[in-house]
Each structure stands twice: as structure tokens, then as C-alpha cells.
């Protein structure tokens, strides 16, 4: 059972849709990871980000989103342009998605001149840095927001960086340290 009163975006690993053998071990002892259905019913006010990590999830994920009426509180992403395109086709564009890698790269470049790259995504999901270069900056965030896109960054695990990203106006931080992010948000009066 999940116990959380937060209204933050939650990163969800869809164990109900992925064979257990495909889930990487992250701890010496087995851990229980909730299914999308468990998260959807246990945390009805929490907005979700779901990342399609492997092929073959599109139809089942679309059905789960429909079954639990999640379209208004979920954003689906992937490191695969093909998976995002297939998901958008299956859902007829009714479920928000993030940019895939090609569109994300275009946004990184075009935001430098304040244009943005267009597209149908609802959010940019980007690393904070790539090959030592800062990817997410004030110009990118302002350009994305002007075009109606949210900006989610990964992976923010440093207290100071989290504060800087929040100061710039990111809409979500994917982190391995939710405890630290909670401390940062609490100190800023942004945790409810």
C-alpha cells in the first residue's frame, strides 16, 4: 500500500506491464514497486509521469490509462520517438505526451533563439546536462512555457541544483532522492 499526501509529479515504473525479469535490481534486498493501477487508485490526486522503457507497452498502457481515467493527470514519455508516435496514434492524441529524443534536441537548439520546435507534446523532459553542457536554462524554460509546454528535468539529485531549477521555473524534477526534494520544497514553502 502507498502512503503519500504529496501532490508532486511521480515517476512510475510500470511493473504490471513489464516482466519482472526486465526490472533492474536497485537494492540488495527485493523491493516492492507499485503497479500503475495501485498508484492510480492509492494516490488519486497525484499527477503522474510514465516512461515507456521497452517496446510492447503501448496498447496495454493506453488501456490502463483509459480504464482508470488518467488522461487528465498523466504524461507519457519515452526515449523512443517510435513508441511515442505509436502511443499518440493509439490514444488519438488524447493523452498528453512528452517530447521524444528528436524533438527534445530540436527544442534545445531552437529555444536558444526563442522559437521552440513546435510539435504536439505537452512537456519537455530533458536532462539537466549533457556531455558536460547545461541543457536546461532560463531561455529554454521561458520559450517552452510561452509555447504552453511544461519542463521536467532529470535527474536532479543535488539540493542546490534542485533549488536553482525551481528558481528557473521547471515544472517537475525527476530524482533518485525524493526525500531531498521534499526537504527543498518544504524549506521553500512549496510542499503541501
Radius of gyration: 17 Å
Instruction: Specify the helix fraction band.
Output: 25-40%
CATH names the topology of the largest domain as TIM Barrel
Q: Could you give the count of β-strands?
A: 8
- Low-pLDDT runs: 1-23
**What profile does the largest beta sheet have?**
3 strands, parallel
**Mean pLDDT metric:** 83
The CATH architecture of the largest domain comes to: Alpha-Beta Barrel
Distance between the termini: 21 Å
- Sheet-strand content, in percent, reads 5-15%
The SSE order reads EHEHEHHEEEHEHEH
**Cα shape:** globular
CATH C-level category of the largest domain: Alpha Beta
Q: Give the helix tally.
A: 7
CATH superfamily of the largest domain: Phosphatidylinositol (PI) phosphodiesterase
Spatial strand sequence of the major β-sheet: 1-2-3
Amino acid at each position: 500500500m502507498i502512503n503519500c499526501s504529496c501532490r508532486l509529479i511521480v515517476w512510475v515504473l510500470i511493473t504490471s506491464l513489464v516482466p519482472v525479469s526486465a526490472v533492474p535490481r536497485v537494492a540488495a534486498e527485493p523491493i516492492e514497486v507499485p503497479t500503475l493501477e495501485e498508484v492510480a487508485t492509492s494516490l488519486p490526486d497525484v499527477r503522474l509521469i510514465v516512461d515507456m522503457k521497452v517496446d510492447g507497452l503501448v496498447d496495454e498502457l493506453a488501456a490502463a490509462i483509459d480504464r482508470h481515467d488518467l488522461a487528465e493527470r498523466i504524461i507519457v514519455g519515452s526515449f523512443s520517438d517510435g513508441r511515442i508516435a505509436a502511443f499518440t496514434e493509439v490514444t488519438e492524441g488524447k493523452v498528453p505526451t512528452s517530447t521524444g529524443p528528436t524533438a527534445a534536441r530540436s527544442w534545445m537548439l531552437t529555444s536558444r533563439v526563442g522559437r521552440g520546435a513546435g510539435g504536439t507534446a505537452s512537456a519537455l523532459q530533458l536532462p539537466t546536462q549533457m556531455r558536460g553542457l547545461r541543457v536546461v536554462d532560463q531561455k529554454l524554460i521561458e520559450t517552452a512555457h510561452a509555447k504552453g509546454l511544461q519542463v521536467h528535468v532529470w535527474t536532479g539529485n543535488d539540493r542546490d541544483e534542485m533549488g536553482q531549477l525551481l528558481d528557473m521555473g521547471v515544472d517537475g524534477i525527476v530524482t533518485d532522492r525524493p526525500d531531498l526534494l521534499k526537504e527543498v520544497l518544504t524549506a521553500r514553502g512549496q510542499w503541501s
